[in-house]
Amino acid sequence: MTGSGHNGLHRFLTRRPIGLALLLLFQILCAAVFISDILSSVIGFTGVPLSWQFREMLELGAALGLVTGIALGAWALRLAMAERNAAEERLRRASGAFAEILEERFGEWGLTPAERDVALFAIKGLSTAQIAALRETSEGTVKAQTNAIYRKAGVSGRPQLLSLFIEELMRDDDPLRLGPPGDDAGKLRGRAVGQETRA
Q1: Which residues form a coiled coil (predicted)?
Q2: SS3 sequence, 171-193?
Q3: Is 175 found in the same domain as 121?
Q4: Which domain does 179 fall in, by range?
Q5: Using CB atoms within 10 A of its CB, is residue 79 exposed (0-12), middle (13-18) or buried (19+)?
Q6: Predicted confidence (pLDDT) per residue in 32-61, tens digit
Q7: At 194, which CATH number?
Q8: How many Å apart are CA 125 and CA 104, to the nearest integer?
Q9: Residue 135 vs residues 119, 145, 151: alpha-carbon distances, Å
Q10: DSSP assigned state of 157
Q11: How far apart are CA 47 and CA 195, in angstroms?
C-alpha cells in the first residue's frame, strides 16, 4: 500500500465515525452467513435454496471477511492508541516547556520567591483573596506583590502577563518544532526562529 493510500485508510478508520460503522456493518454481514447456517441446523430455518458450490464460496468469503475485519479493527485500535499516546506526549512536552519559560522569565525579571509564588497563582487564575489564603497572608500584601510583578514584567495587568507566556510558548518553545526532549539542536532552532520573529 502506498503512503497516500495508507494515510487515507488511517484517517477513514480512526477519524471518521462512518469508517468504523462500515467496518462493523461488514463484519455483521459476514457473521450473518454463519448465523443463518446455525439457525437452519438448530431450528430448521430454511431460506432460499443455494447450490453447494455457491454456499461454499459464500462461507469462504464470509470467513475471509471476518478475518479481514478483525485485522482492520485491531489495526485501527492500535493507530488510535498511538495517536492518543502521541497527543499525551505533546501535552507533556508543552507543559514542560511552559514551566521552563516561567522559570526563565521570573529570573529575568528578578522576582523574589514570594513574588514567584504569587505570579504563578495569578497565571493559574486564582483571585487575590484565594492567593492570600493559600499563602496565609493579607490581601494587601498580595496586591503589593502583584503590582511589583506587573512593574517588573512591564505589563499593566494579569491578562497581559499571561499573554506574554502564551506568545513565548507558541513562538519559541513549540514542542512540535523543538523535536524530542533533550534535542539541543531543536532548542537552538526554536530560539533562532524566535529571535528572527522579534527582529
Answers
A1: 77-104
A2: HCCCHHHHCCCCCHHHHHHHHHH
A3: yes
A4: 90-198
A5: middle
A6: 878 877 777 777 666 566 677 777 888 888
A7: 1.10.10.10
A8: 20
A9: 12, 12, 21
A10: S
A11: 75
